[in-house]
Amino acid sequence: MNKSANKSVKKLVLERSEQLYKEAWDLFPGAVAGIRRPYNFVPGEYPIFFEHASGGRVTDVDGNEYIDMLCAYGPIIIGHREREIDEAVVAHIRDKGFCMSLTQETQIKLGNKLRQLIPCCEKLVFVKTGSDATSVAIRIARAYTQKIKILRCGYHGWHDWCVEVKGGIPAKLYEDIFEFHYNDLEGVKTLLQQHRGEVAAIMVTPVGHPLAEAVQMPAAGFLEGLRSLAYEHQAVLIYDEVRSGFRVNLGGAQQEFGVIPDIAVFGKAMANGYPISAVVGNREIMDVLVDKVFLSSTFFPNSLEMVAALKNIELLEREKVLDKIKERGNRFAAQVQKIVANSEMDCTLSGAPWMPFITFNRDEKKLYKDLRTQFYTQLIRRGVFLQPYHHGYIAYRHSVEDLDFVASAIEESLTETKKKILD
Fold it and tell me: Domain 15-80+320-422: which CATH class?
């Protein structure tokens, strides 16, 4: 990892990454899919391919090592290659197998654990991805209420009803979806009046995380207001806890903030990188899956991810992981807040203590774009892996020393950015 001491650092050598990227263009549309594409970082400055990871660090194919503050966009809650979790999975492969025509007992063990932890969880189903889970939740809400329209706030995945890029999707597939802004309760009231008697569900990320914008916590009365409005309009209140679940609290943001939805979806940090998600909720609502809603997949019942989730949750509880992440995250945030204030830069730290994000405030000259690009260029050169348009995460294997290093790198990067762009 590059060491720096208040001085400029050189551009990283990324020759192997660039070569693999060229090869990938011939195989895959766009070479790299989705949010991992180079233009979502700083092209030419960030690696494109990683080689390996361990604990709180990742190493790219050119041998550059970074403190990994993106954590695979959220699943890594403990650390990469976590021995206890991986060994539990390997033992299950070796001793029992995992893909069968019938379900293994592991499903019941994990289901009972989630019901113990998550306030709204009376019944549940397991799927694989966050997009799976949010789409299942919408289907359940529509079947239960016999209504069609959905009010939504946040990123909910890539499926037709919620994807941001509309290419290839007929307008009729999302014409009954209406967006509102986080913490804008009046906007929700207006939509409910406009579509009175037609709204099946209100879906919200209980912690707001708009793309490239500061992370937001719920304003006083916002979640409570949504809860009340959902009751009043006989709509299902759905929390998208794919990011907040098993990170903000073992019971999710609903446990942390004390406002309970009818349905919630969990994923990402539930299994420390293994692909599993869950739709959990009120017994009566969830029971539409018995015979009114169809849900099936060859791979949804596979048990490896369930084994990983059980072991991950065991570690989270035993080691008091979330308490320690919160403590370190608050300490880190206090450091960075001082650094930001002393930098005299028009930027903001948000998301503490769980999802730290430095954003540059919009200005009339649109200098914020140049500031953002330069800052994240300086940060990656100093061995800190973050994303310019997406908040970061803190994992258990990020030591206090790691976070001190990141804070120092942020200070140096802000200083260098100011020098290059503003001075």
Answer: alpha beta
